[in-house]
Amino acid sequence: MIKPEPIRVLYMEDDASLARLLQKKLERAGYVVTLAHDGAEGLARYDAAQYDVVAVDQNMPIHDGLQVIRILAAHGPLPPTIMVTGSGNEQIAVEALKLGAGDYIVKDANGGYLDLLPSVIDRVLRQHRLEEDKRKADEALRESEEQYRILLEESSDPIFTFYPDGQYRYVNKAFADGVGKKREEIIGRKIWDVFPKDEADKRYAAVKWVFENGETKVIEVRVPRPDGDRYYITTVKPILSDQGKVMSVICISKEITERKRTEEAEREQRVLAEALRDTAVALNSTLEFDQVLDRILANVGRVVPQDAASIMLIDAEQGIARVHRCHGYIERGVGIEIYSERFPVADFASLRTMAESDQPLIILDTHADPDWVRLPQTDWQRSYLGAPIRAKGRVFGFMNLASTTPGFFTPIHADRLRAFADQAAIAIENARLYNEANRYVYELEQQAIELQARNEELDAFAHTVAHDLKNPLGPVIGFAEIVIRDYTAMSDDERQRCVQAIARSGRKIKSIVEELLLLAEVRKVQVGTEPLDMAAIVSEAQQRLADMVEQSHAKIVLSDAAMWPDAMGYGPWVEEVWVNYLSNAIKYSGKPPHVGLGAELQTDNMVRFWVSDNGPGIPPEARARLFTPFTRLDQVRTQGHGLGLSIARRIVEKLGGQVGVESRVGQGSVFSFTLPAG
User: Fold this and answer.
1) Fewer CB atoms < 10 Å away: N or C end of the chain?
2) How many CB atoms lie within 10 A of CB 96?
3) pLDDT of residue 631
4) Which of 75-79, 431-435, 635-639 has the lowest mean pLDDT?
């Protein structure tokens, strides 16, 4: 048995490493490969030896691929030729086919075309042989049309001819099989009876052009099939009479479906990569948690089309998911209560499946799925796609997409959503860590402020104990020593006066200690608030100050407190505020004191209570110190230890309000505090 001669390949490629790699692959497959590093060298080698196949790279020095093909075509019939182009150079490939190239292949970044090239070479050689056979058959057609038809029937490529009006004159078996019809259902019918109008119009435009111009035209066409579209490169050639008139056209198609799918997959990968890159930039441009969630929803549509989307986050302790952001739901009648809905992960099959499998989930038809929970307000959802949001091996949320079309989502969509969800998880986790860090810093700052305040109060407390308690302790000790020393020599009246002086000083000491304890209590104790009976509270405060009012001949004027706006607070503490404000007003007012009380509802839903006096007023530089612990107004030499206003401020702020003072020197002062309206 005679061993067949190896197939000889001339490959023109200026990239030496790629050329050697391809040479090794082809030689392992049994080919004999000669390399040329530019167009000129390739033409010289072609002239010097015989080759079965010529493969030409487009981008070469001296002569590019198209120039080489033109030169070869100008010297005679073109050998089996393959054009090698870069991605996006399909127009060059079409031009090469017009010049007579047998096929083309697109370089891809991962080098997959190197694996495809042997099959392309085989197909080109097979096609070349067929074309040679066809050429010989054409020459013999005048003698035997039947032989020509047999040749066409044996072709694996679809071959068919047309009349000028678009009617099929002849189709071979490969064509009939390709469109999924019988030959007798096609011959004699027009293009529009076989293909959808858009595809039929495209084909007829090419046929009409060849009839009118008498030249060959190459087009790419799509053949819709139930099992998926197929794609072909179709060469439309004129059939001429002896007088050179176009009698008919013959079309020869080569299927490129796999190539198209590869190119489409690469295009989709590029689009996805660009979308994920842009999404990463958008998500990482902020660390604010709410902004991150908003940007996730704003960008998911670039990756997977949908009609509605939502982001759920899981409370890990309770195993409950809640919607934190959504779009497309409220617009379709779902109320804002969706944000307060609780979704136990274990009770919802879709969420449970994603949490356990850590994989995306597609539900092609929610109405047909037995586990889908149908709700009236979301019955418009006909298909669903979800993906877990995960970080550090833990699922902490879900990306949910919905479509109004059954069967809308595909496995490709699922893969893309998973990639997007992984990117979103990083952004969410970064935002969460950022928020936690901010909260920790804020807590540290508050602790520092609290510590500073406590230190200041400790210093002030020491000052009070050292100075303010010293004053009343002096009389206690002094009068006690007098009584001890002169007890027998003293009259009953003298002893009585000494004991009364000791008692007054003791009461002052007791008052200071009680206010210090109240100041500490307000800081530490948490109390609930309730609607206040302010009339009763004010009346009780006045009763406590009855002796002071009587001794100073003070006049207190107030409107009916029962008609004041309702406020929220804690009664015992608010009573202390009134006692402090009223006692200060009496102490520091004119002679006699004239004190007014009132209340009003503010626009911020706070109630303002106030106490006015007819005192000398307070200079601006002194007002800032009024509510500081252990500061007193001693512009008149009234006794006091300065705790009252500090206690009032702490109480009011603890209850959600603010203290304030308005004063003009010589015109009295107005002290106020606010509480939330009831």
Assistant:
1) N
2) 28
3) 47
4) 635-639
Residues in CB range of 541: below 8 A, 6 or more apart: 575, 578, 579, 582
| 3-state SS class at 625 | coil
The answer to whether 8 and 34 are in contact (CB under 8 A) is yes
DSSP letter at 567 equals: B
| Tokens at 441, concatenated | 């810093």
Q: How far apart are CA 381 and CA 626, in angstroms?
A: 64
- C-alpha torsion sign, points 286, 291, 295, 297: positive
Q: Is the pLDDT of residue 58 over 50?
A: yes
d(CA 42, CA 51) in angstroms, rounded, equals 11
Asked if 202 and 222 touch (Cβ cutoff 8 Å), the reply is no
Cα separation of 260 and 123, whole Å? 17
Closest of 601, 607, 611 to residue 557, by C-alpha: 611
pLDDT, one tens digit per residue, over 356-407 is: 999 999 999 999 999 888 877 888 999 999 999 998 888 999 999 999 999 9
Residue 466 burial (10 A CB sphere; 0-12, 13-18, 19+): exposed
- CB of 178 closer than 8 Å to CB of 254: no
pLDDT of 676 over the 50 cut: yes
Name which of 108-122, 445-459, 461-475, 588-602 the model is least confident about: 461-475
Beta carbons within 8 Å of 439's beta carbon, 6+ residues apart: none
Q: What are the C-alpha distances in Å from 242 to residues 246, 247, 312? A: 10, 10, 76
What pLDDT, on the 0 to 100 scale, is given for residue 518? Answer: 64
Q: Which residues of 14-50 are buried (b: 16+ CB within 10 A; e: fewer)?
A: beeebbeebbebbeeeebebbbbbbbbbbbebbeeee
- In angstroms, the CA 172 to CA 137 distance is 15
- Helix, coil or strand: residue 219: strand
How many CA atoms does the CB half-sphere of 297 hold within 13 Å?
Answer: 20
DSSP letter string, 146-178: HHHHHHHHH-SS-EEEE-TTSBEEEE-HHHHHH
For the segment 305-350, what is each residue's pLDDT rounded down to a tens digit?
999 999 999 998 889 999 988 888 878 877 777 788 889 999 999 9
For the chain, how big is the Rg over CA atoms in Å?
48
Q: What does pLDDT average to over the chain?
A: 83
| Beta carbons of 344 and 363 less than 8 angstroms apart | no
Mean pLDDT of 201-217: 91
pLDDT tens-place string over residues 60-90: 889 888 899 889 888 888 889 988 887 667 7
Q: Are residues 314 and 396 in contact, defined by beta-carbon separation less than 8 angstroms?
A: yes
The first and second tokens of residue 184, run together, are 């007798």
Tokens 């004190």 sit on residue: 595
The DSSP secondary structure of 460-525, one letter per residue, reads HHHHIIIIITHHHHHHHHHHHHHHHHHTTTS-HHHHHHHHHHHHHHHHHHHHHHHHHHHHHHHHH-
β-strand pairing of 320-327 with 308-315: antiparallel
Residue type, 544: R
